Amino acid sequence: MIRLFLNKTNLRYIVTGVLLTSLLVLSVLFIKQRKAHELATQPRALPSVSYYPVPKSMGPDSAPIKIIEYSDFECPSCRFATEVLHQLFATYSGKIQLVYHHYPLTGHPWSAHAHQAAECMHIQGKFWPYHDMLYRNQREWAAMPEAPVPKLMEYAEGCGANMELFLNCMADPAVTSGIYAEKNEGTLRQVNATPTFFMGDKRYVGARELQERGENDIRRVLGLPELSFSAPPEPQVDQTPKPPTAVPGGE
Amino acid sequence: MMKRESSYKILFLGRLLIGLIFAYSGYTKLVEPVENFQAAIAAYEIIPYVFIPWIARLIPWIEFIFGVFVIVGYLTRISAAMLAAMSWSFVMVIALTWLMTGSIPADCGCFGEGSFVHFPAYQIFILDVISTLIGIRLCLMRSHPLSLDALLGK
Fold first, then answer.
1. Cα Rg for chain A, rounded, in angstroms?
2. pLDDT tens digits, one per residue of A131-177
3. Which residues does chain A have within 8 Å of residue B39's beta carbon, measured at their own beta carbons?
4. For chain B, what percentages of helix, strand and coil (3-state, to nearest 5) are there?
């Protein structure tokens, strides 16, 4: 039987198949390894990318969990992710630090304006209230037929901004460069969908990943038992809208 | 005779087309972090979350390897059947997602996010139906000229 199976033609087939498959697998693994190597070396070689080199962070520096977020103000999934993050901050109070990075997607027409405005508010020390306001009112400004600068100004005023500084900053191309430098840094880390989160080496793309896999990883670091997500969701999760999925960069 | 030749030429182009689509689609996903594809699968809300990491790791390899097999014509009938089955399963996933949730993802997630091609799910639905038909037709052919199969004598 074995001799019949291993006739000359079949043997040629098997050898060809093994060689071909090995070649394909090794090529992919080689490219992946090269990319990983580039990834490990490139970001460290980058200069400080921020125009205003103070990180947009929330939570204590001593927090054992450090989350880096790449997000877009116009993306619905990122809006949902802020709700997930608020829940995590409430549940694991004092244990998490979040650092925000701009990742304006080109497919979102008003995203660049919103990120510029948020960075301008960061310079005035009001990034997080403005961040929350942008997401809370996302449906309003993102749906506008023209650039929503008057709305962004209104929100800035609502957050108590110095409007003269804000307007000067809105016209400053150096701020725009800083935002896109942050985005490029994300691209080097192979971020191409928003929101993308990093906790150490681990990557979570989309609010759902952060909510399910991410929370369990947080619990693991804190020495808490893992949650089961096959169980019915808790009431407070039920009240939140269904998580939209991550938005691809499309670039 | 002439008709048979021209019909094979069309099928040969079809073979290259589905092979290239699947090989490229698998490759772009393989060289990217797997989490990006996981998020793309999660967009199809009917797929249970517990399976997503496994699917995200397995599908790109199948697409890439069988896509190349179809291009070079190695085990062409089996490889074409595999791609046809995958295309049909994607058709079903898109259709069921639409039927059960009332919406389909804006981006199909079929190519890695960093790829230069992006299709909305409804366009990929049509492409998958065409791929299924080509795959079935290739699978039904007894011999495949211009293939490794022809060289290896099967």
1. 23
2. 999 999 998 999 889 999 999 999 999 999 999 999 999 999 999 99
3. 193, 205-206, 208-209, 245-246
4. 75, 0, 25
